[in-house]
Specification:
Elements (H helix, E strand, L loop, with lengths): L3 H13 L2 H12 L4 H12 L15 H11 L4 H8 L2 H9 L14 H12 L6 H15 L2 H11 L9 H12 L3 H10 L3 H9 L18 E4 L9 E6 L3 E8 L2 E6 L13 H5 L5 E11 L2 E2 L2 H9 L10 E12 L2 E2 L5 H12 L9 E3 L3 E3 L2 H8 L6 E5 L10 E9 L10
Parallel strand pairs: 1-12, 7-9
Antiparallel strand pairs: 2-10, 2-11, 3-4, 3-5, 5-6, 5-7, 7-8, 11-12
Helix pairs in contact: 1-2, 1-9, 2-10, 3-12, 4-6, 4-8, 5-6, 6-9, 7-8, 10-11, 10-12
Length: about 425
Amino acid sequence: MLAYARIASLLEEISKAERSNKAGLAAGLLAGLPEEVLCPCVRLLMGDLWPSWEKREMGMGPEAVLECLKEISTEDVTNLRKTFGEMGLVAEAAIRHKSQHSISAEPLQVMQVYKSLNRISRQHGLESEHRRGAILRGMLLDAEPIEAKYIARTVMRNMWVGLGPQTLIVAIAKTFDVEAEQIRKAYALMPELGLVTKAASMGALAEVRIKPSRPVRPMLIRQGKISNAPVSRAYIPRHSGLRVQVHKAEGEFFVYTMRLRDITSAMSSLFLELKAISHDLIAEAELLGFQNGLMLGQHEMVRYINRRTLSRRSNVAPVLVLWDMLYLDGRDLTPLAYEERRKRLEEVLGAKDVSLTRISIAEQRVLERRGDVEVYIAREGSKGLIARDLLAPYQPGRFSDSDFYIRAVEKRVEGQR
């Protein structure tokens, strides 16, 4: 049994510690913990209780937390909010003066808090708001002020302690006496630190593999300039769309954003075309949207995928333009040279038996001379070019060593928003 007070006290200590000491403090807690609580503890430290790609949300805002506090505190909670602003501090002050006493003599346990917070995220339908409030009130009633502070912050999805993924990666490496690079690599392929910690505890980091239906941390691409020296590269036009990952696995498809959020439900109009692809794959793509023949901008596409009622009819036509292949039919392609990955992409989408109208391969040109690149980037309709090193691998979760983005000179293009 592990008391939640240990998590709350550690978070408080980490919030006041020098940045260089935060990883050591976290490792001090993780070392020696039973395997079954490692994943929950890491998630509670982060304030992220489930993988980012799961379709869940806490569903409680500041007002809902305030209402819970009003029912169990003798303090003027509204006034506390005006004084402190941040909900963790409000909860801490409010719980110092409870109007009710807990019916339990036992302190809050880590698994109790973890399971209760997860229950909140799973409430749907009629009376779900009431059920969420009841679960949170029960926890706060049993909580000490410092525990209430971090329970409220977890509900708000902001811990305010400066304990990000990179710091926790170092902490996990210290805990299990492995190189931080091993943790980073596993995190890039399985981007949820609770699961990575579990793998590390089992000595299974080397077994973490890229897997369709689970997003990969995307390779990052810096902005650069056209080289004066003649260097042969592939140049791919970028438009005003959103960078996404497209996954196909055992007949199901998934689409994830750069932040690893599942937006598959917004892509229902592409279902038949995605089903026509007969391979298991992970591909990178640009998600474009067209309305009345005009290409939408990024902000309009974000509104489209975030619309509250997905069943509501929309006259936006989404289009996927694929530009890289990371996985194909059981094989991780990321170590391969870009030109080899491109060849696999063309083999899949260039097949004669696949008739796709809104899923296509990105145009690319292999150019060497600066003048040719300048002519290509100046063409109408392109926001810029991605310059790809033909021999470079894909590096999940890292900045590319040799690929870069060239921004086009901005100009008004007729027919674009």
